[in-house]
Amino acid sequence: MLRPSLHLLGWLLAILTTASHAASPNIIVILSDDMGYSDIGCYGGEIQTPTLDRLAAGGVRFTQFYNTARCCPTRAALLTGLYSHQAGVGHMTDDHTATNGPAYAGELSRHAVTIAEVLQPAGYRTYMTGKWHVTRKTAPDALKHNWPLQRGFHRFYGTITGAGSFYDPSTLVRNNTMITCENDPEYQPKQYYYTDAIAENAVRYLKDHKTENADQPFFLYMAFTAAHWPMHALPEDIAKYRGKYDAGYDSIRQTRYAQLKKLGLVSSSTELSPTAGDWTSVAHREWELRCMEVYAAMIDRMDQGIGRVVQTLKEQGQLDNTLILYMQDNGGCAEGIGRKPNLKEVASAQHKPLAKDQFQPLIHPKQTRDGRPVRMGPPAMPGPADTYVAYGEAWANVSNTPFREYKHWQHEGGISTPLIAHWPAGIAASRGGQLEHQPAHLIDIMATCVDLGQATYPTRYADTEITPKEGVSLRSAFAGQSLQRPSPLFWEHEGNRAVRDGQWKLVSKHHGQKTGSWELYDIGQDRSEMHDLSSQHPDRVAAMSSQWDAWSKRVGVSAWPLGNKK
Prior knowledge:
By secondary structure, this protein is α/β, with parallel strands linked by helices. The protein has helices at residues 6-23, 50-57, 71-80, 97-100, 115-119, 194-212, 235-239, 249-263, 285-316, 343-348, 392-399, 412-415, 443-452, 475-478, 538-555, and strands spanning 26-32, 60-66, 125-131, 155-159, 172-174, 177-178, 218-223, 322-328, 416-422, 434-436, 440-441, 460-461, 464-465, 489-493, 496-501, 504-508, 519-522.
């Protein structure tokens, strides 16, 4: 019997690999920052997001998709397909390993693989632009074992840490080299604005891919910092929203609430949670209005950038075979960063301009790159580079319409995110514009990429045992079929806990040093969590709390507050 030559085997393998690549879709995952459920247009908001609206009209919108309620844990879960504790980011990027174990290492575990690490062996080129925020190591000379290029990405442009000025980002990096917005030889726009930089570098990667690697599919992860504080936006975008919010908190919430029900994103039985803030008693009304106007402008600008990416795909003939997934990392942010005036500090401040090669050292900068002191609170109107303001709890409550609570907490206002899935070649035209009501979670993105990318999720990687992935592929939901999820969904952050099993959700809010009692909600009827049924169903509470206890032990959850840092 004749044996085929090694040359022939190699030739056949190359043909099979090329055919496999051709059948695999490109994948773009877009993650925005600190935005509420009802902010974008196709989820009930008044903010102009025509690109996302068009993607939704041609794809599927998930009404019950979930994040982890905070920046770092969400990114860890999204990138690895594991619960954030399993991925090493049980809280933030502080190291609590010594007191709380590997779940609180503050950076991605080596027992986890990223989507990029899984897709590379399947023939994908992998690119990232934007916010990384899953490592402790952020200094220019830091160990880079958990920077993007060391975790599976071929190219990276973005920030390693979690926040900062949109005009002068801290920890800005190209590939493995820390840069400034002024000394980057590859990107020098007339006006530097980080949201634009994230989108425009993504466009560049797509164009280079078309020229250099057209025979391979690509995976692109775009992690915008819009609309995380500080409220920074360009004047032309702010101008679009002047007067848009003059009616105040409750009026905007009522309008969004009505639109959410009209669109079918929440059921007719869903109530509107209480409004935070009394518009009639606001002391600095023009300043409060500007906060929301700038917030809206930041989201508008992000949508413009996504539009440039989509247009590039159209021009390349790649849009039909590209799965685009858009989601958010947590609910609206009620944190009060920069909302107290610092007039005395500004009056006495003396700063020198930063040199071209001098890194911006702080995510809360004291000065702009040209030497102006950074102003906070009223009367400093947010938007320009020399301001640093968050939009506050009352506007976050508007963003989270109709839900309770915010970023940090596991009630729906903290963990509910839009998910838009657009893929003309893989989602039937008849599904275009439809809603998908099955609950899904960030952990499902890895499983989806493995499935559609014809990849193999490893049991070992770089001689290290890998934790099995937790999620399920969303492919069946794209087709309107059941996800067949084998177990409930779970959450924990800062002692705030939740478990979702079918229509039932068990949730508790941590209070100071005390673990909160369990609340039980029928999410099918009461998505805004207004009617606690725990006293009526004690057996269900007991059963679901036992499920949460078993899960928390399995993934390494520690009691809150955590022990001392290592």
